[in-house]
Write a structure and sequence with these properties.
The chain is α/β, with parallel strands linked by helices. The chain is built from twelve helices and 19 strands. The strands form four sheets. Strands 8-7-6-5-4-3-2-9 form an eight-stranded parallel β-sheet. It has a five-stranded antiparallel β-sheet with strand order 11-14-17-16-15, with no helix packed on it. Helix 6 links the parallel strand 5 and strand 6. It is elongated. Belongs to the alanine racemase family.
């Protein structure tokens, strides 16, 4: 790979393919695979990622909101797209772009039926979301009779799947809770089969569910973070490859005397002489203030350079006192050897937040191999 000459987020499609095949390899051959590409494909590039997944044979894609699905359709993506959190204001546009809603409440159900009827739809594909313990979105098992009353004989819609979402599948200390969720989902599925005049397929597992509860893969699984190189546990992370690699360069090097301050609010007063490097990346690029004051580090010449002082909007300063480097040298913010997960942990957050927070002003560079 060419060394960075500016702040750039490299998107490695070879790593994406590797992760996809690894996760698929843990499934039964007939199990369908949904790739989650919401939030700009976890901060990378949703169109590029979706196109690659389409060539790899993914069965479904998922986004959070309709506007994300519209971007994919406008880019020529033809794979079925599930909208996980649709809102009524976008129903007409959703139908125009053949996006499939996850319906999660009585209000949303009735409003989508009305929108589909007005547009003269016949058997428009919809998905029913059930709450099994995450307590975020979803119908309850007590709603199944109501759903049957509204949907049986309704020609505008066709229920193609039911789904739920696990709350703690990555945490084996919560295994009993997860197994309770799985049992609840099975009870819901049984009631749906008894009451609805269609038999929808089922999907429950997220990335950590694929790893820890493969016996409950049902008809399809949904993977987000795993596709981007993170399995929520070290032994799985070792089998995956990060898709996103954030790089920058050294803009300027300073020699700071003992007793001087560094950065805004004089957050660091040096106790001994230091050499610092200023980098062209800051909280406007997604590296928040929580990473300052040695909560995280970057890598220069293979060595750790802690972030010192407060993170600025467009810059950070790092300690290079013991690193032989020069202005213009490449800096790895996170990548394969220093992962986004380990970078995030230093500030007591998670890779999801770090990845999805990388600003759109950071240049994306696609690595095709």
């Amino acid at each position: 790979m060419v060394k960075a000459t500016e702040t750039v987020l490299e998107i490695d499609l070879g790593a994406l393919e590797h992760n996809f095949r690894y996760l698929k390899g843990r499934l039964n051959p007939e199990t369908r695979f949904l790739g989650v590409v919401k939030a700009f494909a976890y901060g990378s590039d949703s169109v590029t990622i979706a196109k690659k997944l389409e060539t790899l044979g993914v069965d479904y894609l998922a986004v959070a909101y309709v506007k994300e699905g519209v971007v994919l359709r406008d880019a020529g993506i033809r794979t079925p797209i599930l909208v996980l959190h649709p809102l009524p204001v976008s129903f007409d546009e959703m139908i125009e772009r053949c996006l499939e809603p996850s319906l999660y409440s009585r209000k949303i159900l009735l409003e989508f039926i009305s929108a589909a009827q007005k547009q003269g739809q016949h058997k428009y594909p919809v998905h029913l979301k059930f709450n099994t313990g995450l307590n975020r979105l979803g119908f309850s098992i007590e709603d199944v009779t109501y759903l049957a009353e509204k949907l049986n004989g309704e020609k505008a819609l066709k229920v193609v799947s039911i789904l739920s979402h696990l709350a703690a599948s990555e945490d084996l200390d919560e295994k009993a809770f997860t197994q309770t969720q799985i049992k609840s989902f099975e009870n819901i599925a049984s009631e749906v089969d008894k009451n609805l005049d269609t038999k929808p397929f089922r999907h429950l597992l997220n990335t950590s569910g694929i790893i820890n509860y493969p016996e409950s893969q049902y008809d399809m699984v949904r993977s987000g973070i795993g596709l981007y190189g993170f399995g929520n546990e070290a032994k799985i992370d070792a089998q995956l490859r990060p898709v996103a690699i954030l790089k920058t360069v050294i803009s300027q090097i300073h020699t700071i005397a003992s007793g001087e301050s560094i950065g805004y609010n004089r957050a660091l007063i040096t106790q001994s002489p230091k050499v610092t490097a200023t980098l062209p990346i800051g909280h406007a690029d997604g590296i928040g203030r929580q990473y300052g004051n040695e909560k995280a580090y970057v890598t220069i010449m293979g060595k750790k350079a802690p972030i010192i002082g407060n993170v600025c909007m467009d810059m950070i300063m790092v300690d290079i006192t013991d690193i032989n480097c020069h202005e213009g040298d490449e800096v790895i913010v996170f990548g394969e050897k220093h992962s986004a997960d380990s970078f995030a942990r230093g500030a007591k957050t998670i890779s999801y937040e770090l990845l999805t927070g990388i600003s759109k002003r950071v240049k994306r560079k696609i690595i095709a191999e």
